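Thought: the user wants the 3D structure for the chain below. I'll pass the sequence to the structure tool as-is, report back what it returns, then summarize two notable features.
Action: structure_tool
Action Input:
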Amino acid sequence: MMDRSAGEKASVGSDGGEVCSKDSVLSSSEVGLSLDQQKKILESVFVSASKCLSTYTGKELQTIVPPDRKLYLFLGVYTDDELSRLPDIFDEFIRTYDEKLTLLYDRYEDDNRSEPLIYDPTALLLIERLEKIPFTLKNEWDALLPESSLAKFALFWGISIDFE
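Observation:
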């Protein structure tokens, strides 16, 4: 079982500090961000998402999405406007789906057959994009990893993506 008590939100870390808070990542209201600004926002949200995922899994995370490719993937699935609001988008996603995430990660905790991608540090951002734009994510994904990984990952979340 995870270290979180029933009803405890993922935004509270084991030390009592907030882990999944929009305050823990950069916030920007600008549109038309430079590539460096986009990368900085994404990297900050990746750190927050990794900490947050650790609270759901209680396990060591596994890097499936190659670190040198994750920026490429996520720059392709967020608009400039979304990137400028990404900390808020991520925070809203966690607040909205905390219960579902808790249930799913509890359910798959001891299942060695589960798609390893669910333990990737980018998993929560991938799920957020699956909720919003599954086929755009699929199109960007095709260049990075096998289709079967995303298809199994999407099924973990309860979405079926047809790659035909």
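Final Answer: Structure generated. Residues 1-17, 21-30 have pLDDT under 50 and may be disordered. The chain has one domain: 34-157.
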